[in-house]
Amino acid sequence: MATVEEEELPLVLVHRPPNFNFPFKHRLQTHFRLLDPLDLDPPGSTNSFFSRHSASIRTSAAAGKAFSPDVADLAVALLIDVLRRVSAGFRYVRGGLWTRNGEFPLGFKLGGKRVGIVGLGSIGSEIAKRLESFGCVISYNSRRKKPSVPFPWYKNVYDLAVNSDVLVVCCALTEETRHIVSKDVMISLGKEGVIINVGRGALIDEKELVQLLVRGELRGAGLDVFENEPDVPQELFSLDNVVLSPHCAVATPECFDALEELITANLKAFFSNKPLQSVVEF
Ligand SMILES: NC(=O)C1=CN([C@@H]2O[C@H](COP(=O)(O)OP(=O)(O)OC[C@H]3O[C@@H](n4cnc5c(N)ncnc54)[C@H](O)[C@@H]3O)[C@@H](O)[C@H]2O)C=CC1
Ligand SMILES: O=CC(=O)O
């Protein structure tokens, strides 16, 4: 039961993925009364509060750009790790292989690589900015050419892959983008090709990706997201050219501070009839 003082706070309906427990919930509760359907409905419920009421919900605050710099940092870290074999080198030293086998295999230079970004949104733009400063040559695919962007645009991912050494996948997952990185796209990237995914697992045909990596038909992959998290295909565990992270691109306290600031600003704007800083239309 809410107390009389709590009743006076603005009521906020929370819409979040079941695996996202925002650590600043208690601080938001000092300004707002939170109605979190996941506290009421079990995860996966087909008749959840949100699905029953979503038709009547028109506007909500989104994460906006709060996550983007940290996600972009991790994408670049995964790419450098795959190319320069950072994690593999660590395993080599720790496993005593340096003493036993001698020199470690050569890695590959980042500068000069042609990087194709699938989805030049908020995260993709941050990735482009970082990789450009490393001397990479950027191009991108999105539904439409972005007039203010200087990089070459490819209208499909296949053509982007043909003209890239690296594909960085960071577009939104929709029915249209599910498996947008198909077997054909990966084959067209070629044997020297590297794939980085910080978007969603299902943007890539994961079974085909695994097969291509196992058969040595790609140079490597850096993956933060997977089709059936937290289950990761076991075949990837023994591949030295694959770097895996547990969907943690946003997992920094700074990121959550930025998110808290944005959510609070959005909610305060909403309750004073001012424009939101970031909006989702349902
Ligand atoms: N690994 C992680 O921890 C995180 C992953 N993400 C994922 O990254 C995605 C992108 O995030 P933002 O850049 O912030 O979103 P955004 O909305 O700024 O950008 C999404 C981009 O996807 C593009 N896109 C949509 N449909 C497309 C299509 N059919 N073909 C090509 N491009 C298409 C849009 O043009 C847009 O440029 C999110 O939807 C989310 O799934 C987001 C945050 C953290
Ligand atoms: O962690 C956030 C996400 O969208 O992924």
UniProtKB/TrEMBL annotation:
Keyword annotations: Glycolate pathway, NAD, NADP, Oxidoreductase, Photorespiration
The cellular component terms of Gene Ontology attached to this UniProt record, alphabetical and capped at eight, are: cytosol
Query: A GO molecular function for this record?
Result: NAD binding
One GO term (biological process): oxidative photosynthetic carbon pathway
Q: Which residues form a coiled coil?
A: none
Show where the D-isomer specific 2-hydroxyacid dehydrogenase NAD-binding domain sits.
76-249
- Tell me which SUPFAM superfamilies the record gives: NAD(P)-binding Rossmann-fold domains (SSF51735)
InterPro entries, per the entry: D-isomer_2-hydroxyacid_DH, D-isomer_DH_NAD-bd, NAD(P)-bd_dom_sf
Listed Gene3D superfamilies: NAD(P)-binding Rossmann-like Domain
Which protein family is named in the record? Belongs to the D-isomer specific 2-hydroxyacid dehydrogenase family. GyaR subfamily.
PANTHER family annotated for this entry? 2-HYDROXYACID DEHYDROGENASE-RELATED, GLYOXYLATE_HYDROXYPYRUVATE REDUCTASE HPR3
Stated name of the protein: Hydroxyphenylpyruvate reductase 3, hydroxypyruvate reductase 3
Give the species.
Hibiscus trionum
Q: What is the lineage of its organism?
A: Eukaryota, Viridiplantae, Streptophyta, Embryophyta, Tracheophyta
